[in-house]
Amino acid sequence: MSERYDCTECKDSLYGQKYILREEYPYCIKCYEALFSSNCEVCKKLISCTSKDLSFKDRHWHSECFLCNSCSRSLVDKPFATKNGLLMCTDCYCLEYSSKCFACLKTIMPGIKKMEHKGNSWHENCFICKFCQQPIGTESFVKKDGNNYCLACYEKQFALQCVHCKKPITTGGVSYHDQPWHKECFVCTGCKMQLAGQRFTSRDDFTYCLECFCNLFAKKCAYCTNPISGLGGSKYISFEDRQWHNDCFNCQKCRVSMVGRGFLMFRNDILCPDCGKDL
C-alpha cells in the first residue's frame, strides 16, 4: 500500500490533483488560495494561483488591474509613482505634481537633479548666470530684477565700491554723505568700533563714536570735569570760557540750581544771591 500524500490544510488526497508547495508543505489549490492569496487592490477579487500577482508596499494587483489612475495605461514593467496611495505613470505624475523649471517652463522629471530657491525650481543646466550664461550650481549668487547672477558678474556689472577699501559691496552696506561703505569699514576713527546702527558724529570728515568724540574734543565740565558732548540736544551752561552740565550748574554752598537765575562768582565758585550776601 502506497504512502498517503494529502493537503496540509484539508487533508484531501493530492494524488492526481494540482497542488502547491509552501515551505515544503503541500496545499491543494483551493486551500492555498484561501490561506495565502491576496485580493486585488482595484477589483477586490482574489488573485488566483494562475494569475500574476503584482505587489507594492504590501498591496496587490492583478496584472490587468495594475493601471495608471489618471490615463489608465498599464504600468506592468514600467516606471510609476504614487500620490495619496494612487498609482500613476511618470508622465501623468509629472504633469500634475512635478515642479516646472522657472527658466524653460518644462517639467522637472523625478530623479533629475534640480535647483531650488525661494519656492522656485530650475533644471541644473537652466540655473545659470544671466550675464556669463554659466551654470551657478551650488555657488553663491545674487538675484537682481528677477535674474540670477554669479558673484563675479554681479560685482562687475552692478556692485558699488566701498569708498574706504575700494572693494565691491555685495550685501548690505552703509551710505554716508552719499558714499557707499561696507559695514565693517564704516568705523570710529578713534576706537575702530563699527558705527552702523550706532549714534556717531564727525569732525573734519572723520567719523567718531560719541564716547571717542567726547574724550577727544568735548569741553570738560568745570564742576565734575566730565566731557560735555552737547550732542542729541543735551544742554549746558557757558560763562567766561568755562562750561557746566545743566545738572552741575549749582550754588557751591546751598547746591540750589542756578540755571536761568542770577548768580555771583566768587573766585571760581558759583553762588546764589542769598549765599553771596555774606561775602
Task: Kindly describe this structure.
The protein contains 5 helices and 22 strands. The protein is an alpha+beta fold and 279 residues long. The strands form 11 sheets. Strands 1-2 form a two-stranded antiparallel sheet. A two-stranded antiparallel ribbon has the order 3-4. The mean pLDDT is 86.
Task: Record the SSE blueprint.
Layout: E1 19-22, E2 25-28, H1 29-36, E3 53-56, E4 59-62, E5 80-83, E6 86-89, H2 90-96, E7 114-117, E8 120-123, E9 141-144, E10 147-150, H3 151-157, E11 160-161, E12 168-169, E13 174-176, E14 179-181, E15 200-203, E16 206-209, H4 210-217, E17 219-220, E18 227-228, E19 236-239, E20 242-245, E21 264-266, E22 269-271, H5 273-276
Antiparallel strand pairs: 1-2, 3-4, 5-6, 7-8, 9-10, 11-12, 13-14, 15-16, 17-18, 19-20, 21-22
What's the short version?
The chain is an alpha+beta fold and 279 residues long. It has helices at 29-36, 90-96, 151-157, 210-217, 273-276, and strands at 19-22, 25-28, 53-56, 59-62, 80-83, 86-89, 114-117, 120-123, 141-144, 147-150, 160-161, 168-169, 174-176, 179-181, 200-203, 206-209, 219-220, 227-228, 236-239, 242-245, 264-266, 269-271.
